[in-house]
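Fresh eyes needed here. I'd like your take on this protein's tokenised backbone:
***
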Amino acid sequence: MKTDFLQKARARAEKSGLDCHLVLIHERVGSLRLAHSQILQPTSTESFFAYVKLGRGSCVASGQAEGAPQWALERAWQEAEALLEHSSGCEQLLLAAPICELAEADLPPLPSPGRASEFVRGQLLGKEEVAGMLQVKSRQLTVINSLGLLRTALSTQAHFFLSGNGFAELVAPSLEELGEAQLDFVASRGEPLALPPGRYRVLLGPSAALDLVEGIAHSGFGGREYLEGASFLPELKILGGDTFTLADNWQATGGLPFDFEGTTRSCPSLVEGGKTQGPVTDLATARRLGTKSSGHSLPPWEDSGPLPLNLVLAGGRAEDPLASLGDGLYIPRFHYLGLVNPKTATFTGTIRDCLLVEGGRLQRPVVPLRFTASFLELAQRIEERGKPTWVPGSWGTNLVPPLILSCFTFAEEGRKWII
């Protein structure tokens, strides 16, 4: 986004006579998919999204549009104005204090398809019949309001994964940095083994470990959930044992320096040495709690309330997690997760790409199994943690280690699926 375009948008907001909150997103994404170890046609997209929220007294309305920058902003603004005329008073539009921070004027170019294909071919050496994807993304977020706030942040991310009787992924700020690492992917061969329902000792890979801690963080540490009595925080003071430390740290993970209201993001500790801390907030929840916003507002069109965004879980001393597991199941990721009870952080789902482990070595693939489990209880069953690994997130990355759990209960066999 050009500087003059952003300056004009701020001037319009300041002179409108309305309370205004603008969120602008410019994004470039390059993707390269794999099927049966063959590279498919690379694709690239570029998009611009404008969200406009306007307020007059206790009346608030919003509009959004995607297209060319000037057109999208105008369309979103007109939609919000039209809806505001018919809006009944029910809320006040809260605005962050004015700050002016302008990042680079435009997004960096995407890697060429040839460079992306070269990277993928190097990662595919010795690997057969795998699926996967390389995605390189650059994104500029801008938040503007009628008090004079104008903040922009530029983020880039390269993400590559392979799956097929196994799963592994790499994440880095750019394709160049991604290319410095070799994907540790080991596919298991043979017919999937159908295991009976029951209790198993398991190793959660970083992606599954992120789902675990993210489920806990989103169930209990959101300001809205806390205020509505859906959080476990008021009753739960101890979580995961005295070595369990979980934080939301954008500085350590390449996340956004400010939230979607334009408030500077803090880096709060959620669990410190097994002791739970307070919830994260945005402007609205902070006002109700009588505190300052911690800078955790999410995209306003999602209406999800403030939540932790860039999770960092302290690692452990397990140099070789598979060897430490010995016998059990390796779960690199979950297929899906559905929230059952936020007060106990109970989720239901199935496992994906699971492999049997015997003597610290990966053996046969395992037929998907279904589970319903309290993630708070699973956190109590963590025996060992490995070295923290980058795992992609929606805005920035997360830093979590593989986790060895003493017990994971499966209720029934899930359905087979095709990658």
Summary: The first strand starts at residue 19 and ends at 35. The chain has two domains: 3-31+40-127+137-156, 198-410. Confidence is low (pLDDT under 50) at residues 414-419.
